Amino acid sequence: MIPLRAPQGVRYTQQIDRSQQVLPQLRSRAPQSVSHVAAGSRRAVSRRSVRAFAWGTPKTTGPAPGEVLGKDYDQKIPSYNKGRRAGILLHPTSLPGPYGIGDIGDEAKRFVDWLADHGMQCWQLLPLVPPDPMYYSPYSGTDANCGNPLVVSIEELIKDGLLEFSETPPRVPIADVDYPAVAAAKLPLLKRAAQRLLKEDRFTRLREEYLKYRKEHPWVEDSALFDVARNLPELSQLAWWQWPEPLRLRQKEALKEFRETNKDAIDEFVVIQYFFEKQWKAIRSYANGKGIKLIGDMPIYVGGHSADVWANRHLFELNEAGLPEQVSGVPPDAFSATGQLWGSPLYKWPAHKKEGFKWWTARMARTLELYDECRIDHFRGFAGYWSVDANETTAMNGNWRQGPGLELFTAMKKALGAVPILAEDLGVITTDVVALREAIGAPGMVVLQFAWGGGPGNVHLPHNHYENCFVYPGTHDNETAVGWFRGSANDTDKSYIKSYLRTDGGDIAWDFIRACMAAVPRTCVIMMQDVMRLDNTARMNTPGTAAGNWRWRMGDGNVWNSLKKEGEDLRKVAHDTNRLPKPKA
């Protein structure tokens, strides 16, 4: 009897490999169509059985049985390169930098160098949108298309001649980000640089680039109107639905008058967005040149007090006053016993469908201008989403409602072609979520920190992983591996981990890293905090809490030298698990 699988060590040839494409179909059908009688007697094979084994005449011609094959026959070995890779999750605000926050200047390039030197192939970030002005969450921004001005590099503006070194703010010792202090020190400098670009003759070339950017990105006009309005002294403490009616309702004459009255401030805003665009695209070009892909992050929802909702009221479920009666969130899960009440307005999906999902298509197109790939946060909301009454104080009480499903992604593909999406499919995942993700061919996510409860069938355990996904020791929403193992992990978890990973738990962060790198998912992404073996003082976000998040910073400019040993260890593990970049032909 011919074995369906070759003995270990036997190389499949190109010819045999082609035939194996048929075998999985045969194995799946045979139990229903073939009946066997007792050993030694004649086999009864039904007509249906004959059809099952009737592979048909090959459509391509080849050597006849018994013919001598070419001398290079045994050199035709199939490639087992599955595109395995590894990378780091690190938000630019966490990078080194002298002014209280990481930015997208030289330190971002040094990080790219560190990635490339140590065999990494991707850099995953959190959303780079302007964060909400109260808690500075990048997942509740004021504009889905704009960049965060706080990460614009002062040094890059000095190189362009737009600022003088003598104008820079005092250097700040490395500590957690103090967003209000950073904004107070940095935004006036960005405005000064913008005014110089707009008015001084020596910046003609940059001014032409800025005007080109503005023409090619018409959405920035509404972004500018909204941002200038929300920062006016008389409106700064109000949400847009509390603004005077002509501005709130975007009446044509009111918008015209507002543009004329606030022209300088509007132009300043657009120039600062141009600064972000110019600097970030330089980082992307530099990273791609080093073989590093940038993986962005798109929150499924947008903030209620945002340019997106103000300029597109008809696409959101709002009442006449502009307020949502139902808001977003998720029911109780591993992160929170009372669920997570995000409070964002819900989409009016029939209105999106009526327009051919053009708002979503434009949003994705913008994302792919900035990144090579895109993680969609809360992907499950496209299949079914949790809807909570706006008066609730937790997300425990709500209803599941039908999402747009495959229609949305079909429209995106028709408009944009291939869309490289990573589906964040954590939390309450039902069969329709899996079906949607598989229908569009998007990789999902598994997180090793979630693996240790529920027994050996837990999808997050390495033996249950699948190739088309991303594996993480933990994400930005998790505790660090060290912090979790020391604190939240119970005795049963620890016992299972020690047995499963064959470890004493003394270096749990790297135990998790090695396990993830060795697992079958094509992409392994590791939080920088776990590479550095840090505890929960370095945690980036605690879901269900608003204050105190998004502030962690990794150290000063000497950190790359101090991480040389960890980088070398990463490279060795990447080599051993076939995750190093392949040499270019």
TrEMBL record:
UniProt GO BP: carbohydrate metabolic process
Pfam families for this protein: Glyco_hydro_77
Name of the top EC class for this enzyme: transferase
Organism of provenance: Chlamydomonas reinhardtii (Chlamydomonas smithii)
Molecular function GO terms recorded: 4-alpha-glucanotransferase activity
Family: Belongs to the disproportionating enzyme family.
Annotated Gene3D superfamilies: Glycosidases
The UniProt record lists the keyword Nucleotide-binding: no
Alphabetical UniProt keywords: Carbohydrate metabolism, Glycosyltransferase, Transferase
Protein name (record): 4-alpha-glucanotransferase
Enzyme Commission code: 2.4.1.25
Annotated PANTHER family: 4-ALPHA-GLUCANOTRANSFERASE DPE1, CHLOROPLASTIC/AMYLOPLASTIC (PTHR32438), 4-ALPHA-GLUCANOTRANSFERASE DPE1, CHLOROPLASTIC_AMYLOPLASTIC (PTHR32438:SF5)
Catalytic activity: Transfers a segment of a (1->4)-alpha-D-glucan to a new position in an acceptor, which may be glucose or a (1->4)-alpha-D-glucan
Superkingdom of origin: Eukaryota
Cross-referenced InterPro entries: GH (IPR017853), Glyco_hydro_77 (IPR003385)
